[in-house]
Each structure stands twice: as C-alpha cells, then as structure tokens.
Amino acid sequence: MLFGDANQTGPLHAWLYDVDQDGKSRSMMPGNQPLVTPPGATLRVNAAGGQNTPSERYLKVPPAVGMAKEPVTVGLDLRTGYWMIRNTGHTNTLRVQQYGLAAMPLYPGGSMTMSSEDVAVWIPVAPKEPRPNDKSEAFRLLILATEHLPQRLRSGGTLVITNSRRMLTGNQQEAIVAYFGDHLSWPPLPAPHVRQQSEVAEIATREQLAKTPSIQNWARNRIEVLTGRDGLFTAADWYPKMGGKDRTIGDNLAAFYRLIELRTITRARVRRWAQEHDVMSYVIFDPHLQIPPAPRAGDVRSR
Questions:
Q1: Which of 209, 231, 276, 300 has its CA 20 to 30 A from that of 51?
Q2: What was the pLDDT predicted at 1?
Q3: Could you tell me the residue ranges of all domains in the chain?
Q4: Sign of CA dihedral 196, 201, 206, 208
C-alpha cells in the first residue's frame, strides 16, 4: 500500500552550518549554495568527501572530535516518497528537528522520516575551545529542504481529521511571529524561548516599529488574541484548557506545536506574515536558505 507518490518528490537541498559556544550558526557552504540531491540518489555527509555520481551526492564536512566519518545519510523512500534521514554513526545520538518543533533524538543506526519541507539535523561535536564542563557540546548543523512533500494518497474510508488547516486572522499571525519568533527562526536556535510582553514591547521600541495605539497596548493586545478569553489558544476546541489564571503565554507551547503539525504554520507563511505585518525584527531567517527557482521549460538563459 502506498502512502505517497514518489514520482512527485522534488530534489533535496542541503546546507551545512557550524554552531559553536555562542549559539550562532555560521555557514560552511562555499558561496552559500546548497548541495542538490535528485530523487533516487543518496546524500552522504562525509568527512572525506567523495566524487558525486548520479546515485550519490557527497557533502563534505570538516572532521571534528566526536563526529563519525559519515554521521548522516539521506535517501528517498520510494515506497512513500519521503526522504529518510539515517544516523550512520555508531556512537553519538543526533537530533532531528522539523521547522518550528522541538528536536527529537535519532540514535545510531536509526532512521527518521523528513516529514516537513524544512528539517535540521544537529550533529554533536567536541567544542573547538575548552570549556569548564568537559561534557559540553558544540554542533554541526545540517539543514535540509525540499520544495514540497509527496502528494498524499487516500487509502481507505478512514475519516481525515489531522490535515485541516486553521485559519488565522492578521492579528493572530502578527502575534505568533512576535511572541514565538525564536521558535520560528531558521536555522533553528539552540535554546529558543517564548517572549514575554515586556520583551516584545522592548524590541518594537528599539526597532522603532509603528504600532498603534501605542507599543505597550499593541504588545498587550497581541497576547490577548492568543491567550485571552476568545484567543486562538484558549477558545479552541482542539486544545485542552489546562492550567489556571497564572498561566503564561509560554505555557501554550503544546497548542503552538499543534498548529505546526497541522501545517497552519510553515516557514513560507511565517516569512510572509512577518513582512506583511512589519515584525521581521522578531524572527531570524538566513536569506541563503532558499531553494533556487527551477528553470522553466524552454528557458535557455544561463543562471
């Protein structure tokens, strides 16, 4: 039984970053250009590199203490049409992170489906500089992107209940970016947090954002559209109403994650919302993490 259409799967784009003790991601790609793996080929993240062939693509990663010679491979599951990420090391646990969600462990020898267009793989390495705690980690960060997921095929009479997208108002879109922008940045941050009202107001003041009727009232209102009596989170019949009057906006991460799982929130939408509502200051996007447009049929111009 097929659950997707492998024939409609697009190529895989891969970028490599170094994440050191300051938590910042630095590109390790020449010219910031991605390595492209066509459907049917295997991406090998390898310290020795290799010769690219129609069936294999090699993304060379500089050797590091604690990292396997080939820590990650990614190949297409022809049965489902999804790209599969495999921990090909023998010692250390990787972390796989879908856009906007928390990272999940991937143990040596294990595999995990790339279930979103944007996925990061955290590869632990020993820090370059000594630290007081000898058990601390630094990371190589593999960013994977595909233009679209395989088309889902209906395979029976089961009622579809998990792929209905929630519609957000403009104020809700703006509030999601302002308060959850750390979680929506890409490449992902090592330790994102949910902002409080004072922090949202402080950023708006620093960036001189034109928010009405005042920055403080705007920041307070955007919390209300999410967590007020009729807010997105509290009024939703799809989210259990737990906690009490002392619940903070950060306690609503489960509801936020559910919106990402249902594909209400995607990286493309967040970028558009941030631009439309003038809240780009609240989310960090590397502009190089874009899939280049495919050449149009009959277009012979060089790119």
A1: 300
A2: 32
A3: 8-146, 170-282
A4: positive
